[in-house]
Amino acid sequence: MQPADRALARLSARFWRGAAIAALAAALAFGAGRTPWLRAIENLYYDAWHAMSGERHAPRHTAFVAVDDATLLAFKEDPLAFWAPHFGRAIGVLGEAGAVAVGLDFLYQVSAEAWLRKLGIPDSAASRNYDAPLRAALAGGRAVLITQVVQLDSGRAELLLPPRDQLLLLPNGIHDLGIANLHPDEDERVRGYYAVLDPDPAAPGIALGLQLALRAAGGDPAAQEWELGGRRIGRQPEKRPIGFAGPPGTIPTLSMSALLAPGALSDPRVRAVKGRIAIIGAANAGTPDRHFTPYAERMAGGEIHANIVETILSGRHPRALPWWAECAYLALLLAIAGWAFLRLPVPRAAAAGAVLLALAPLPAYAAFRFDWVLPAAGPQLGIAASLLATLGLRLTGEERERARIREMFGRYVSDEVAEKLLAEGRGPDLGGEALAVTILFSDIRNFTTLSETLSAHETVEMLNAYFTRVCEPILEQGGTVDKYIGDAVMAVFGSPVRHPDHARRALAAALGMARAAAEFRGWMQERYGGRGLPEFGIGVGLYTGEAVIGNIGTPRRKDFTAIGDTVNAASRLEGATKELGCVIAAAESTVAAAGPGVATGKCEQIRVKGRAQPIRVYEIVGMEGR
After folding, report:
1. Other beta carbons within 10 Å of 232
2. pLDDT tens across 142-197, in order?
């Protein structure tokens, strides 16, 4: 198999591994997103997006008339059960101010007049006409009264209706009624609503929010479906998300006491309800009609109904992605994550996973600003699963191969070169390949005399100290220390990491070795001075050409090395440094491949054993920037 084919096969295998991991992680995230425990986490993110967004848009269709502490204080002498005249006058003022409809979010099952008759209170004009203001307001056709569904201990649901004498006054009968039940999720937060609870047109089964919206839009409550706010609403029960305009207080709010004050119609706050739907509801400090919503503060029930009406009429509400779009989003996100996890070293992959886990909710928040709901916890689960699967795969398979490569080359190349080799995602072709490289040979002058003068222990000590110094320039330039041959060093530049400028790197390493040898001369003088040793020196030969690189040896012992004429020529040039009287001798091919800036000294043509053609050799005395 050719190198290009092998590279393509490795790339294909990595692609399919990454695709399989991304697909499995996406399937896990999509499936888990339908489970209660992950939905609970998604709800936390959903609530956080509301809190972070604050006021999302200005309400245009509704106003909230609050029965607040100021209202209770103004009418503190009247029990709330006898407030029918106050509600009637408030509805009348709202009508005169131009409100298109009024929802009364208070439920009485008996009128004050009927209750007084039940108690046998003496008949009088006051008792007979006590509810007259409310009766007049109801007969005017602008008001919608609430009903309430209650669940009995027997499990049967029952609908609580307003008093019969009030029902008889409603011009549209049951179509002037709206169910006021709110429907919190399992965590007691109200995030959605039912527009219809009973599909039977003959039953009062429409929710208060839809009933008021139909009143404002001129819709028929008896129809089978409605087109409101650009959305189709059918008569079947279906929970829909509330598009909250903002936190509590975002809906324009007016104290009911302002409606009942003298000259109320001259009050700008009262005139501001013109063209809006007004909902009268409790908002005093002690009312139980406050509910948790996606926002941190509790919201009055009447204001929640106002948000429902805004949602219906504006058509603006959080929309979940279609299932196929959610799958595509998860697959794309997790494919990017998987690609990063497969390419990066394990520590960096883990760090990247932590970063992606932290950033995964950001697209969901950005989408929420445009009323789209993207999963946030699901992608995080998928990223975590993808990271664990990738690391597991690499640690059990690929990492073993990487460890083998690191063990094989860690002794011969620098840590940076080893990491680059691993980061390329491919090991060298151990079976053998022909590459253009630069081979460097170096040995110690007069080593035989040195070794005869020094003891065996001193000779080993000297070589270890010498190799430690002269191999550093090789490793710094990205070269590979191929082998030590006695006092000689063989290095390869351009393999296993393919540096295009391998010749220039090799010359820079040779100059560094010459400087290291000159410094080592002082170490020798200090350590073995007075022993009559010859002056320490080295020779370095370099040749650039094609060599065969591979794992060569017997089945029991192999070395990754270079062989061929290029290796032989470099070895001969190292020996020729003695004849030339120089430290570094490089072939013309090396000088030409290194490019401009190489300072040369003597130049000769020499014949080397094993080659028919002479080699033009240059003494290397320096290089630009070195």
Report:
1. 9
2. 899 999 998 887 778 888 999 888 888 899 999 999 999 999 999 999 999 999 99
Whether the ω angle into residue 496 lies within 30 degrees of 0, i.e. cis, is yes
Strand partners, 231: 228
Domain boundaries, the chain: 3-51+320-408, 59-315, 429-623
193, two tokens? 């609503």
Maximum mean pLDDT: which of 296-310, 449-463, 550-564? 296-310
| Gyration radius (Cα) of the chain, Å | 44
CA 393 to the chain's CA centroid? 23
* Confidence (pTM): 0.66
Q: Can you tell me the distance from the alpha carbon of 400 to that of 382, in angstroms, rounded to the nearest whole number?
A: 25
Least confident stretch, 357-361, 408-412, 442-446, 476-480: 408-412
Between strands 101-104 and 143-151, the pairing is parallel
Q: Which residue has the tokens 């527009």?
A: 195
Task: Name the nearest CA neighbour of 320 among 579, 33, 565, 594.
Answer: 33
Cα distance between residue 206 and residue 149, in whole Å:
12
DSSP letters of 411-428? Answer: TTS-HHHHHHHHHTT---
Calculate helix-pair angle for 456-476, 502-528, nearest 10 degrees.
150
> In this structure, what are the phi and psi dihedrals at residue 622, rounded to the nearest 5 degrees?
175, 175
Beta strands in 361-445 (DSSP E): 372-373, 433-444
Can you tell me the distance from the alpha carbon of 614 to that of 620, in angstroms, rounded to the nearest whole number?
Answer: 19
- Pick the closest to residue 591 from 576, 573, 579, 607 (CA basis): 573
The sign one gets for the Cα dihedral 326, 329, 331, 333 is negative
Closest CA to 65 of 308, 292, 276, 285: 276
CB 280 within 8 A of CB 256: yes
> Which CATH superfamily groups domain 429-623?
Nucleotide cyclase, GGDEF domain (3.30.70.1230)
Question: Distance between CA atoms of 442 and 300, rounded to whole angstroms?
Answer: 87
pLDDT for position 501: 93
Mean pLDDT of 52-67: 95
**What would the two tokens of residue 20 be?**
């399989």
Q: Which of these, 544, 545, 548, 549, lies nearest to 590 by C-alpha position? A: 544
Tokens describing residue 186: 């399992």
**Tens of pLDDT along 360-392?**
999 999 999 999 999 999 999 988 888 888 877
pLDDT tier for residue 17 given thresholds of 50, 70 and 90:
low
Residue 404 C-alpha from the chain's centroid: 34
**Six-digit token pair at 396?**
């059990």
| Whether the Cβ atoms of residue 239 and residue 324 lie closer than 8 Å to each other | no
Is there a contact between 103 and 90 (Cβ–Cβ < 8 Å)?
no
- As beta bridge partners, residue 542 has 440, 586
The token pair at 437 is 């490289």
Q: Is 548 helix (H, G, I), strand (E, B) or coil?
A: strand
pLDDT band, residue 207 (cuts 50/70/90): very high
pLDDT score of 555: 66
pLDDT tens column, 429-478 = 555 678 899 999 999 998 988 888 899 999 999 999 999 999 999 989 98
